[in-house]
Amino acid sequence: MNTTSQSVKTAQYRFGRFTRPIVLAVIGTMKPRWNDFDPPIDEEVCAHIERDFSRFPLRAKIMILLMFHVIQWGGPLARRAPVPFTWLSPDARADRLRGLRNSKRQLPHLIFKALKTMVLIVCYSRPSVEQYLGLVRSDWQMSRLRLREQLLAVDRKRAKLPPTPLPLGAADTVHPDDILQDEPVLLPYNGE
Amino acid sequence: MAIPEPSLRIVTFPELGQTQIDTDVVVVGSGAGGAAVAAELAEGGLKVLVLEEGPYFTTQDFRTDVTNVITRTMRDAGTTITIGRSPVQYLEGRCVGGTTVINGGMCWRTPDKVLKRWGMEHGLTRLTSKSLQPLFERVEQRISAREQDVGTEGKNSLVFQRGCEKLGYKTVRNIRNQVHCVGSNDCVTGCPTGAKQSTAHTYLTILCRYGGSIVTSAKVEKIRVEGGKATGVVARIQNLETGQWDKTLAVSAKIVVLSCGATQTPLLLLRNRIGNRSRQVGRNFTIHPNIKISAMFDEPIDTMRGAHQAFQCREFQDEGILIAPGGVSPPLMSVATDLFGAEHGDFMLKQRYLATGGVLVDDFAAGRVSLGPFGIPLVRYDITNADQHKFIRGAALAAEIYLAAGAREVYTAFGGVGPIRNGDDIRRLFLYPPKIEHTEYFTAHLMGTCRMDRDPTRGVVDESGQSHDIRNLFVADASILPTPIGVNPQETIMALATHIAGDVLNNWKTYRQVAA
Ligand SMILES: Cc1cc2nc3c(=O)[nH]c(=O)nc-3n(C[C@H](O)[C@H](O)[C@H](O)COP(=O)(O)OP(=O)(O)OC[C@H]3O[C@@H](n4cnc5c(N)ncnc54)[C@H](O)[C@@H]3O)c2cc1C
Ligand code: SF4
């Protein structure tokens, strides 16, 4: 029986020299920052977006590349602002993104949403940002894993319990404390 | 002590070493429908082979960053979206276990009134609450559907329940397929603790125990039909080293079961130009759409800690509205607002105090899955005004629930609508109804594109799941559900797959004769 995981190797994509500065400018404008912490994660986030991008289907790749160039050249082409996105000051870049966000038309709004989704999920997965917010996901996952290991170990020890889960309604709902009476509970539940 | 991984017989192409296999039954897809039908048939004594387009992931693979999971386990790396009046983002699993690997784990039986409607409108008179009862019990036992351990619900679910209680709205404690779910709240990016009992942990281990196997990275492209009966399939195999789909595997089988899910099964039939005499393939596509709701509290909620969803509000089920909490990890929560930059940073500092949930509505109309120019898949769905009215009412009710629970502000998915702080703000939703174009929708429950109907002119498969047009070709997945069901669908899909497997086993002699 095989239980090892499989993963498909994909060639790592790198944004070209025209696109990369636009991506970095978008990241720099959208990434979260605080008075006492401006995370230096732009390159890191860009590398992760490139990793994700290499797994996207061709259709999505084309759309995303187009999207970045619409951001870059949309202003001059629409004769709203004569300057490409990367030439703008940080405040002006933020204004241009706000323009997309607040647009009454659906397409600019969708472009904003797609960019936001792509950039922010990666930003908030960066270890430095997680540390700053006090939300280190991997620590939480490991603590949950250890707790579950304990629960399963006790399940196994209890000779009365059948080895496989009981059918619905065959047993009362269990409280982990009932099971872990003699065992230390590693972390409390419900976030207290 | 490590968490045990499921015991599966997984074969990749190099190990397989064959380009031609003979079997009794070939099942295409290993999600809710495919795994259930495959396991039941294998247990019934048939030789079963499952072909799965995606790869296999272990529990450990889910202990990584969010987009690393999304882009590897989901179809089109999670970029799937409908076209139509306001696009709707949807997700489908593309790995061993299918969408059950990335779902929330809620398990509900098909409501009685839905089954009655199927009987009346679609002639499915064998599918009654009474006849399905043993099948539901069997499914629940196999996937360990049970209540959450008390204490693991998490604040995100508890505040929601508190609001409902204050208003006297009926809630139900969720039944979920889990064993000691410890509330890591990562269900939609794969369970990192092994608690969720996806089909990879349940049905597929049963399949392998009874001699069945799963070939991964095998995308079925051709269904072989000879003399009006299905005789097998041809799959393209992906080389995991190069990523190229450069090998072919032909499987001859007495019975072919399609379980590719509500978008892929109709596309496969349409590409093969078979099974569509009714012209219903790809039509009747319903999605049980939903919108997000979030609420800011003065007390910490910490949605990261607790089960994805421990309760549902069923008070408005008759109106086709389901309201429920739904927790996600912080990276996914970050997209709940349109802010960015420093403003977003402030928002996330407060995210410990944010509760998240959603409103799901029974669809009024239906969309369509079809093939566009050059065979491009088109998944079309238009949100109707009737749906939007339900969404507005649902959002208003959800706001009322959260405010009753003590929330300071409630945020909706309606663009341009500010935070809701009191009854006046709620009433404003009805005075100035938000437009469909300014609303952000999402869906997780796709169904209906190869609907089951006794009448061959109205449905794609009969009450046994067999194609009306092609003998020995079956469909067992979300696409056969004839109408929206108003609850999470995986248990219904598994129960129907079990029903189909039962019919196949009962009539095996006939099917074998047809195949001969
Ligand atoms: C985020 C999310 C949360 C959800 N939460 C819940 C919940 O809490 N409760 C609930 O009941 N439901 C939930 N659902 C829905 C539920 O998981 C699905 O409805 C169900 O899994 C669908 O089952 P299926 O068999 O139709 O398809 P799937 O489970 O999607 O399986 C289809 C499989 O077929 C494979 N496949 C497709 N085409 C081919 C091909 N050509 N060749 C080979 N293989 C192919 C796919 O890779 C996939 O593995 C959720 C869904 C999502 C996305
Ligand atoms: S809440 Fe966490 S532990 Fe529970 S099933 Fe979901 S991912 Fe697994």
Structure, described:
The complex is a heterodimer of chains A (192) and B (516). By secondary structure, chain A is an all-alpha fold. Chain A has a domain at 19-125. Chain A has helices spanning 20-30, 42-55, 58-77, 90-102, 106-123, 127-133, 137-157, 176-179. Chain B has 2 domains: 14-81 and 90-144 and 191-281 and 448-513, FAD/NAD(P)-binding domain; 155-178 and 290-362 and 384-438, Cholesterol Oxidase, domain 2. In chain B, a hairpin with a 6-residue loop joins β10 (229-238) and β11 (245-258). The longest helix of chain B has 20 residues, at 385-404. Chain B is globular and about 70 Å long. The model of chain B has no long low-confidence stretch (mean pLDDT 93). Chains A and B meet through α2, α4, α5 and α7 of A and β1, α3, α5, β5 and α9 of B. The site of flavin-adenine dinucleotide has 42 residues of chain B, from α2, β9, α8 and α13.
Can you give me a brief rundown of this structure?
Chain A has 192 residues and is mainly α. Chain A contains eight helices and no strands.
Alpha-carbon Rg of chain B, integer: 22 Å
Number of domains of chain B: 2
Oligomeric organization of the protein chains: heterodimer
Q: What is the terminal-to-terminal distance of chain A?
A: 41 Å
| The CATH superfamily title of the largest domain in chain B | FAD/NAD(P)-binding domain
Strand content of chain A: under 5%
- Provide the gyration radius of chain A in Å: 24 Å
How would a crystallographer describe the biggest sheet of chain A? none
Low-confidence runs of chain B: none
Stretches of chain A where pLDDT is under 50 for at least 5 consecutive residues are 161-173, 182-192
| DSSP helical segment count of chain B | 14
CATH topology of the largest domain in chain B: FAD/NAD(P)-binding domain
- What string, H for helix and E for strand, traces the elements of chain A in order? HHHHHHHH
